[in-house]
Amino acid sequence: MAMPPGPRAFLAPRPGRRAPRPRRHGEPGGHGVAPAPPEEVGARPGLRALARLLPQQHLEAGYICERRDLLVNGCCNVNVPGTKQYRCDGCLPHGCCGAYEYCVSCCLQPSKQLLLERFLNRAAVAFQNLFMAVEDHFELCLAKCRTSSQSVQHENTYRDPIAKYCYGESPPELFPA
């Protein structure tokens, strides 16, 4: 029996851990991502799908929680004080963040939807196929927050080595290499 729609959850990133890689075409998984424990992925960072939804909730919202606050269905327990919605920890005013999970959570704020619509309307032809394939605000935030060519300089270093996950309209500020 399928559960009705509800909030999608992210785990708070662990200090010193890299952000999860994006799901590859055809790879199983849901719509949410979180760093998987090393024992689940052979001691490598990876994805943990969090597509199961909480009952009696009709939101698609970015919750961040600690691993200990996950429910058995893989979603954050929204009744725990540490679970927060629309977290922007480590995000700069121009929309670049230090952690992928916080980038997506911050991007999901309803106030950011107009910014994302403007981006879609102005997306370069090369990116239109990528971004037009997204089905909702959540998937657009997942795609925008992945690192891209706009996040790097000289094809091998990040423009901003700390805030490299961006949902904003502008690329990260250029730092000296």
UniProtKB/TrEMBL annotation:
Signal peptide: none annotated. InterPro entries: SPRING1 (IPR019352). It is found in: Golgi apparatus membrane. The keyword Coiled coil does not apply. Keywords: Glycoprotein, Golgi apparatus, Membrane, Transmembrane, Transmembrane helix. One of its GO terms (cellular component) is Golgi membrane. Residues 15-24 have a biased composition (Basic residues). It comes from the Eukaryota. Belongs to the SPRING family. This is SREBP regulating gene protein.
